[in-house]
Prior knowledge:
alpha/beta
Amino acid sequence: MENKTAVLVLIAEDQAEIGDVLKESFEDGGYAVLLAATAEEAMAALDAQGEAVRALVTDIKLGSSTTGWDVARHARELKPEMPVVYMTGSESNDWPVLGVPNSILVPKPFAPAQVITAVSQLLNASSTPGA
């Protein structure tokens, strides 16, 4: 039985091992998870379930010319306050230019708890009156 009150997080990660670890960690933390292996899958999931998705966690390099930067911009077009957490091993220098405002970048390698904490911080900030 799906938890209807769980916060739904979309995770876009092309490395299955990392995606699986994050999915399990978020679910252990009480979140519901949609997992996408490509930028195109992530954008399709946002189009299909954008209202339900409360936060986006995306790798920058997703194995095609469409990147996590693109996925985040698409998410923000659908929901301007969507919390976005980027994960990257090499693209952090581009974050100030290509990243969406009020996002967090978590450099790889990371502990899953770091990503969950970043999502929690953004969710709390977006639900705080006057934030």
